[in-house]
Amino acid sequence: MPEAPKLKLLVVDDTVVYRKIVKDLLEELPGVEVVGTAHNGRAAMSRIADFKPDLMTLDIEMPEMNGLQVLEAVREQCLEVGAIMLSTLTQKGGQMTMQALDLGAFDFVPKPQEATIDLNKEAIRKALFPMIEAFRRQREYKQIMRGKGAFVSKPAPAATRLQPSATQPSATQPASGVRRASGQKSEIVAIGISTGGPNALAKLLPMLPGDLGVPIVIVQHMPPLFTQSLANSLNAKTALTVREAQDGDILSNNTVYIAPGGRQMKIAAAADGKSRVVKLTDDPPENSCRPSVDYLFRSVADHYVGRSTAVIMTGMGNDGTKGLGVLKKAGAITIAQNAETCVVYGMPKEAIDSGAVDIVAPLDELADQIRRTVRLL
């Protein structure tokens, strides 16, 4: 078989040190070719025209033409180049990163502030390499689907209900939802999500009614500061109230609680024994994640037996799979986003393969599936 063409990358950063670090790192990756570098957005647009890169690492704050303006120009000119943002760990950096994701950036990597260049280099390697591999897989998947005409002539698959014994979705029938034998409606919705999450949540949450009638708790894999920016961004787009969770928050209906970056979030009983509250901890990472989906899901299973809905969405890795299994055993209705609408079909695939998922649905049908479980439609 002919060797697959290399992924062409462009490195864009106004800082010489970061430009060199990223360039040197990328040249270590097999199947990757660094076709050029640029010190600001204007130079980047010129390099894109000259070298036709598949992907660029893009600094946000640059003189003359910043990263957001580059993304706007790429969109206006319909250029086929992906972008992974290099973002500063500041409130302003978080806000600009959310804007970048709105403009179509694939994901972002926080710029580390370690004591030495070697430590900074290792931190970027750890964050950037899996992301580039995820971008490559998504690109290959889209090319395969285009070859089959899936994006031209076929509508997105409808939701499917998986057979109880299935470990792979096979010959499944369309499902309008899953009902518990008890007929009990869900009293909470828990969501686990990672790569591609901000854009997916920006589509999902506005499709839910402002009077949904239950709280929603979310773990989005994201560093500190960025989760606050994400909550602010989503709050402006939906009728629900979206906030970064704080320790001791009493869960309220029609409110979305996003786990803060760098903390673990779980649900606990309030002093009155009836209400449920948010508990933030510094417990160790699980699946290399803090916040961790598994950590949250287990606590929901403990406090909402037979009364919860859990959703696993786009993301790398397997965080959430074990927790989803615990939730299903506790009587939860479990839903996974389908492959066709995931930016990265990692977390949902692992959960589906484990047999922990009741329903597989495209992104634009997830809100309807959730509504059916909380309102018994």
Mean pLDDT: 89
Strand order of the largest sheet: 6-15-14-13-7-8-10-9
Number of separate domains: 2
Strand content: 15-25%
SSE-based structural type: alpha/beta
Q: Please tally the helical runs, counting DSSP H or I stretches of 4 or more residues.
A: 11
Q: Based on the structure given, which CATH architecture of the largest domain is correct?
A: 3-Layer(aba) Sandwich
Order of helices and strands: EHEHEHEHEHEEHEHEEEEHEHEHEH
Taking the sheet with the most strands, its summary is: 8 strands, mixed
Query: Rg to the nearest angstrom?
Result: 21 Å
The named CATH superfamily of the largest domain: Methylesterase CheB, C-terminal domain
In CATH, the topology of the largest domain is named Rossmann fold
The number of strands is 15
The percent range for helix content is 25-40%
Question: What low-confidence regions span 5 or more consecutive residues with pLDDT below 50?
Answer: 151-156, 165-175
Briefly, what CATH class of the largest domain? Alpha Beta
| Gap between N and C termini | 52 Å
Which features would summarize this protein structure in a list?
five-stranded parallel sheet, eight-stranded mixed sheet, alpha/beta, Rossmann fold, about 375 residues, globular, 2 domains, 11 helices
Please give a structural write-up:
The chain has 377 residues and is of the alpha/beta class. It folds into two domains: 7-147, Rossmann fold (3-Layer(aba) Sandwich), CATH 3.40.50.2300; 160-375, Methylesterase CheB, C-terminal domain (Rossmann fold, 3-Layer(aba) Sandwich). The protein has helices at residues 16-26, 41-51, 67-76, 91-102, 117-147, 197-204, 226-235, 293-303, 321-329, 347-353, 363-375; strands at residues 7-12, 32-38, 55-59, 82-87, 107-110, 160-161, 188-193, 216-220, 241-244, 255-258, 264-269, 276-281, 308-312, 333-337, 359-361. The strands form three sheets. The protein has an eight-stranded mixed sheet with strand order 6-15-14-13-7-8-10-9, sandwiched between helices. A five-stranded parallel sheet has the order 2-1-3-4-5, sandwiched between helices. Helix 9 crosses helix 10 (347-353). Residues 151-156 and 165-175 have low confidence and may be disordered.
